[in-house]
Amino acid sequence: MTRTGKRNTSVFYKYFLTNLTIFLIPFVILGLLTFTMAVKQLKKELEQNFESRFTLISGDIDKNIMDMRQLAINIAYDTQFYPYQLKDVLNEQNAIRQLQKHLNYTFISSDILLYYKNESALYSSKGKFSNEHYFVYEQKIANGDQLLERINKAEEPFLFRIKPTVGHIADQAVYVYPVAMGGVKRQAAAIVFWLSSDMLEQRIRNVSGKLDGNFYILDQDNKAILSAYKDTSTALDGILSKLDLSRLPSKGRTELGGSKYNALMVQSEGSDSHFLTLFSASDLLINAENLQFLFYGILFSLFVLGMFAAAYFARRHYKPIKKLHHSAGELLLEMDHPMETSNEWDRIDRALMVTTNNNDQLKAKVSELNFHIIQNFLLLLIRGNMNEVTEEQLSSLGLHFRDKFYCVITMMSRTKGVFPSTVKHLTSSESLQLLDLTREGYMVFVLNTKTSMDDEARKAAERLLEELGDGKNQVMIGIGNMYRHVTEINYSYIESMAALDFNHQAVGSSICFFHQISSKFSNYVWYPSETLLRLTQAVKQGDRGLALELLQCLNAEMEEKKLTGMNEKLISFDIINALLKTVNDLKLKINIKDFGAFGAMENRVELFAKVERFIGTVCEWIAEQRQLKSEQFVRDLLQYVHDNFTDYELSLEKMSGTFGISIYALSKLFKEEIGIGFKDYVIDLRMEKAKAILQKSDESIGTITRHVGYANDSHFIKTFKKIVGVTPSQYREKLTKQQ
Question: Model-level pTM?
């Protein structure tokens, strides 16, 4: 508790929460959305990249199988492997060494066997062994008898899965190719290639650089023969039993152990087997998830930093309020007023109310000052010097225009005498605001109504006449047309002055509407409506030549009609009003210095000279703005292309949505303004970027492809060769040689 009362801080907390909400929370939400979309797109690209690598791997393994088939045929026709040759010990050793050489040409085979059917021995690249010794001790398999039986009966090539003995967990298989060996008397044999998962995995890594998923070789019954694992926690048989292989080779999706797997399968061209891969999309995003944790950490840090920043700015904004709050407390204490308030603003408001209520002189001065501010504001409106008016401006002045339509009521005495003194006591209301121009011989009222009908305006005018006590029609009133926006009051003001001038010359009712003048003259007075409409349209289009030509036509028509002074002045008012409306419609920022001189013209020649210069100024301004907008638009287009040409989704369709212009118009603009088509322009940018990267770095072609906005390596290489004349690799080699 202080001498001025208990310290309130609710406003401080409001400032704090406002700063936090406005600046920090939208940033965090936008950041999360942006990151989520980026991770989703990254996942899609990683999956596509994996599919490309699977196609490359399956093709390589298939080629290896076909190479083994060709190798088996070569062995079958090699005479040194014939039975009679192998009876000699020296020839036998040479044959074994030859098998070792053949083994070097296979990449997924750990051994090659030559087995003559129903014989008790076999020949391996490791030496000659008995069947039992080789299968039990060399390869440690449990189903060697079953394999021999299958080989003895085989007439077609086949793949066979090996069952390892206990304690030997290596995943193995054999590829058996039956042949007939010998010269005249041929003997049935088989070339057996010993395959292992280790060799398969090593080959996969050599081809693609890494193993992202599980890779399987399946037999005709879709049973796994050989596999290379990354996810060893998933049982192979369990996976295959849950897969619906009938859906493949199209992309399949299945649930395995609560995790989502993608499955792809292709048919081998070198055998009756299939190649299958299973990979988890989430595994591909391990790095992205690490990035996600880092991103969340950054967001959290920014959130904490934002909390401190919000507290700092809230305290800074609260500081002047705190001073006012302290001063208001001291003032209330001195005046012996209650100190208890709900927040700082209430105490400040109470102090102001107390001060105002106890100072009539200050209140009167404030009221008088506010009246003059409103008068100046309304004067600017009727002179057309305000193009934009906000609700905040009106509210701060105490002008509560709540309805949709506005018009101006102008009042003038029929004699040149001064208005009665009671005119200054006319009370303004929310719907009727007074502008005191009695020094100029008239008064202006701005009326705000709910409808565009004449009833409200007529009632307001009659109420004014009644309040003035005018029983002898000494006061005339002119009323302009209704408009929808407060900034259009100047049009209504010009029209009310025209109606007032007509009412001054024609003896009649005290109240005259502008549209009544038009209707009266349309019956018996000529009016150049078509020419005036064409004139305003020419000005809007900025066609100075046509506008001046129409102005001359209008002058000639008025000269030909021999109009009276009143008629000529009425049409002159319409010309001025139409041109000013055109300027406002175009939202042109033109300072019309001789605005008041338009209404003070004494003759048509002087008026049309002013109008001609005015049209020239407007058309010149329109032409300059159009040129500036066109040049700026082209600069914006080029800047957008330069900022986004590395995005492979960049297209005319995307730019059409961004800039709100049709694809046809964009394409035409590129060819006319830049001199080259959009597609060629983007390709040139990408090729220059690619050449710069090739010159300055050792990045792979695949990485450069993504850096310059291509999603496919082959497309990039083809385009590069078409434009540059050589492939990217050849271009890099050429640069290396030059250096």
Answer: 0.38
